[in-house]
């Protein structure tokens, strides 16, 4: 018997990183994820990160180079905020930490849409987004005729 597809939802995300300590600090300090566990055996370094005890992200130190947008695989990792004020708070914190942004401030997901957010890079260049479904009215849409989150 085949399981119902409607029961599936996204679980945790696993990212390969080049430097576990650097990436762990970024996801903890910049985005507020809690370390849930770590493995630091020779050649097998990893960290489990989450919120309220629930696993959200696993970092695996096994990449030899930074993120490559043109390669098949992860396009970007998006997080949803509770409201536009939370997006702005994350933007301020990320700017304090010197995080590189792809667009200047909050941008809309498309021309005239209410959804939007911020787009930035982690220490290995992985593309990240923090967005909301409403609250970005009037924000610029940097990519004409295509979703902002698709081409950055």
State the gist of this model.
The chain is an alpha/beta fold. Helices cover 16% and strands 31% of the residues. It is built from two helices and eight strands.
Topology summary:
Elements (H helix, E strand, L loop, with lengths): L12 E5 L2 H11 L3 E8 L2 E8 L2 E8 L15 E4 L3 H13 L10 E2 L7 E6 L5 E6 L20
Parallel strand pairs: 1-4, 5-8
Antiparallel strand pairs: 2-3, 3-4, 6-7, 7-8
Features of this protein?
152 residues; alpha/beta; four-stranded mixed beta sheet; globular
Structural account:
By secondary structure, the protein is of the alpha/beta class. The protein has helices spanning 20-30, 84-96, and strands at 13-17, 34-41, 44-51, 54-61, 77-80, 107-108, 116-121, 127-132. The longest helix has 13 residues, at 84-96. The radius of gyration is 16 Å and the shape is globular. 23% of the residues are buried. The model has no long low-confidence stretch (mean pLDDT 93).
Q: Characterize the biggest β-sheet.
A: 4 strands, mixed
Helix content: 10-25%
Distance between the termini: 42 Å
* Number of DSSP E strands: 8
Portion in strands: 25-35%
Annotation field: number of helices: 2
